[in-house]
Amino acid sequence: MFEDLALKLESALKKVRGQGKLTENNISDTLREIRRILLDADVNFKVAKDFIEDVKTKALGKEVLSSITPGQLITKIIYDELVHVLGGNQSEIKINGSGITTILISGLQGSGKTTFSAKLAKKLKDNQRRSLLVAADIQRPAAVKQLQMLGEQINIPVFSLEEKDALKVVKNSIEHANENNFNTVIIDTAGRLHVDEDMMAEIEHIKNYVLPTETLFVVDAMTGQDAVNSARIFNERLNFDGIVLTKLDGDARGGAALSIRSIVGKPIKFISNGEKLNQLETFYPERLASRILGKGDVISLVEKVQENFEEIEADRLEEKIRKNEFDFEDFLKQIKAIKKMGSLSSLVGMLPGLGSQVKNMKVDDNALVKTEAIINSMTYQERKKPKILNGNRRMRIARGSGTSIQEVNRLLKQFSEMQKMMSQFSKKGFGGPMLKNYKFN
């Protein structure tokens, strides 16, 4: 989502970094351009105005004007202000020390509440919470069925009733949770427009009955300033505790993410990308600010790797690389692990300095699927010893994987080059340091 914004900010800052000395004039020119960039990105007008004024006040200080690296200090000031606009510090979800933790999920229609509810349940399950999902969306056709299907995927029970009263469903779910020793209840409510008084009254009644530990507002980041306006009105009615931004992997300009914290005054707690149930991230303002300025987000990338890799496998893989025995069987395991981590484009976006390359490069998330199909069409012996793959075998693999002989040949060539590169790294002693701190699964 932020690639275009990052590229434009990088271009604007490059001009001021190229100046030998900062003056009021070139600072003003740069900030005027940055203000235009923010407004083009659909950032709220007042937020953009306050942001520029705060940066200008600090940038015109003597420390900056007399600095030998003024351009770097300007970038640091803008980074600090972005972190401030995004909330400053990371905000944890509240969990009760004893008894049941209740989490009420609210939001507009189509914002992704049901999928987020399942993602949150999985995340809490991974942290040893015993969760119950509650299907309190009785308005949308198949909403209950969708939550039940998601619950089955992560092995988390879903409470539902053949009932047209959402409050009754919620009341019964709390009783069920108490009777069955659940310590977390996640209530998925119906999507509603803030102008629908009956629907807004319904969720107010639910909140007043449950008195939830945490009320979260789920917002589709692709809806721009409409998302900010809706969040403000929902907060006036519900006084929610935090915000969840969904669809940050889409093509929106990012203005909602940069505006919503300042306008509503409530922290962003999670960002949700994609449909996979492991694609939920705790929100860190400093990490997003770093990505917006084209500096990447290596910490989140490493965390993703560590979630999907185990240390014992890292040791085994390191040994195979050192002995130049890395084969297609090992490669297949790595592909499966990478697929768990999310889309390739989202992973590449976390790498520092790749903003401009990603913008003009089509990252094909289906490439791994095709590679996996080719490897799966090989016999075990062929995976272990790729050198035996003659013309007839390659033809059979192409037919079995639904690909062409050219694609099979290309993969074999790339794999051979990768083996040579790994061998060189191993000889230079890079294998251990590169892999030791990662956990492979």
Strand percentage, roughly?
Answer: 5-15%
Mean pLDDT: 80
**Based on DSSP secondary structure assignment, what is the total number of beta strands?**
8
Query: Unreliable runs, pLDDT <50, ≥5 residues?
Result: 353-361, 429-441
Count of separate structural domains: 3
Q: Helix and strand succession?
A: HHHHHEHEHEHEHEHEHEEHHHHHHHHHHH
Can you offer a commentary on this structure?
This protein is α/β, with parallel strands linked by helices and 441 residues long. The chain folds into three domains: 3-85, SRP54, nucleotide-binding domain (Four Helix Bundle (Hemerythrin (Met), subunit A)); 101-292, 3-Layer(aba) Sandwich (Rossmann fold), CATH 3.40.50.300; 301-436, Signal recognition particle, SRP54 subunit, M-domain (434 Repressor (Amino-terminal Domain)), CATH 1.10.260. It has 22 helices and eight strands. The protein has helices at 3-17, 24-40, 45-59, 62-65, 70-85, 113-126, 143-153, 166-179, 197-210, 225-238, 255-264, 285-292, 298-308, 311-322, 328-340, 344-348, 355-359, 367-376, 380-384, 391-401, 405-427, 431-436, and strands at residues 101-107, 131-136, 158-159, 184-189, 214-220, 242-246, 268-272, 280-282. The chain has an eight-stranded mixed sheet with strand order 3-2-4-1-5-6-7-8, with helices on both faces. The longest helix has 23 residues, at 405-427. The two termini are 29 Å apart. The model is unreliable at 353-361 and 429-441 (pLDDT under 50).
